[in-house]
């Protein structure tokens, strides 16, 4: 399982992404509070690794602390490595949480300064764009003769 980004964890702990971010944080909180081997009838003995709860609480107390965010990320990855059920549920949570837009990737598009000649593309995360037509020539200067 890929590590859950410390940046994502810090932003969610700090209240980023509004209600969706809060919902993701509550989901993670619930997940780490589950006992090891949650779905098994006969619970195996819990391994000697952190559940992630202590790291989660510490990050919630200081969401801007990158060391605390990294500690939670590491605790989640370690627990996922020893608890296959936790790993599967954490992977599901991560797939949903990482699509929540937090402060990473804000876009502010502005076009100003008169008439634009050529293509104007606004948005984010573009790659491989090509345009097959050249931009039109600029208009003649005022007072210049036109053919």
Description:
The protein is mainly α and 147 residues long. Helices cover 43% and strands 0% of the residues. The longest helix has 17 residues. It is elongated.
Overall spatial form? elongated
Instruction: Count up the helices.
Output: 5
- Largest sheet entry: none
Order of helices and strands: HHHHH
Instruction: Report the helical percentage.
Output: 40-55%
Uncertain segments of ≥5 residues (pLDDT<50)?
none
Distance between the termini: 67 Å
β-strand percent reads: under 5%
How many strand units? 0
> From the helix content, strand content and strand pairing, which structural class follows?
mainly alpha
Rg from alpha-carbon coordinates: 25 Å
Give the topology, please.
Blueprint: H1 6-13, H2 18-32, H3 53-61, H4 66-82, H5 84-97
Helix pairs in contact: 1-2, 1-4, 2-5, 3-4, 4-5
Features:
mainly alpha; 147 residues; single chain
Question: What is the gist of this entry?
Answer:
By secondary structure, this protein is mainly alpha-helical. 43% of the residues lie in helices and 0% in strands.
């Amino acid at each position: 399982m890929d590590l859950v980004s410390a940046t994502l964890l810090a932003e969610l702990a700090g209240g980023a992404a509004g209600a969706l971010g809060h919902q993701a944080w509550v989901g993670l909180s619930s997940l780490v509070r589950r006992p090891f081997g949650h779905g098994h009838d006969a619970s195996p003995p819990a391994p000697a690794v952190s559940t992630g709860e202590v790291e989660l609480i510490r990050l919630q107390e200081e969401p801007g602390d990158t060391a605390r965010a990294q500690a939670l990320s590491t605790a989640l990855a370690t627990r996922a490595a020893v608890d296959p059920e936790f790993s599967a549920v954490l992977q599901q949570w991560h797939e949903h949480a990482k699509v929540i837009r937090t402060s990473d990737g804000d876009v502010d598009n502005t076009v100003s300064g008169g008439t634009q000649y050529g293509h104007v593309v606004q948005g984010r995360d573009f790659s491989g764009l090509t345009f097959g037509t050249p931009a039109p020539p600029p208009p003649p200067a005022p007072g210049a003769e036109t053919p």
